[in-house]
Design a protein that fits this description.
Largest sheet: 4 strands, antiparallel
Radius of gyration: 23 Å
Helix content: 10-25%
Strand content: 15-25%
Shape: globular
Number of helices: 6
Number of domains: 3
Number of strands: 11
Strand order of the largest sheet: 6-7-8-9
Order of helices and strands: HHHEEHHEEHEEEEEEE
Structural class: alpha+beta
Length: 252
Amino acid sequence: MSVTDQHKTHQTFGGKIVVLRGDFRQILPVIPKGSRHDILASAINSSHLWLFCKVLKLHTNIRLLMSSSNQDDGEMKIFANWILDVGNGNIGSVVGDELEVKIPNDLLITTTDDPLSHLVDFAYPNLLQNILDYRDGKRVFEPDTTCQADENEDVKQEWFTPEFLNDIKCSGLLNHKLTLKPGVAVMLLRNIDQTSGLCNGTRLIVNILDSNVIGAAVVTGRNIGNKVYIPRMNLILQIQDCHLSSNGDNFH
């Protein structure tokens, strides 16, 4: 802060405008091994700064704009309104300390013999016919190195063998080995380029597998048929239980 702004030191964020984005009603903070109280206490609306915040609400449903037909648009609008009513507490009845919500029949899996297979067939019809032999796919490996930091200088690198690092599975980090092949359907987990439709949740069909890039075609939204290329992206993840940082150069 400059000398001329010293009179603003008593103001929140030094008088600067700070944009906080997200929806804590849908996505709560992640507190490893934290209780429900710890999670709620970490939300921005539990902070004393919340009194100085002005809430700006979104009024346009982007997913509705991405629908490919009028029928999809109507179904998504009904579903979006239902989800909003559930979040606002307009649907359901209070039983004790819990709210019971009746799920519409069209959102339920009625079969009981193999519900997972039924869900896969509904989301990806004729999946087996459209995908070639899975064993012929190309395996994509992630690096198995750790980042040397000041706080873990006393930790010997030989303690963490490649086998141990390869078995680590946690939120935000992909598995060490992925088996992909041309023709397989994948979902993007990172926001890369919104104008090209490369957002979290975009579904793609893999066309090209290279060492540092994956070529694919968009199959959802307004950019259906567009050819895109997904590069490797560096990801550093803090693994609290092991007191180390994992450096992953991988696809998302």
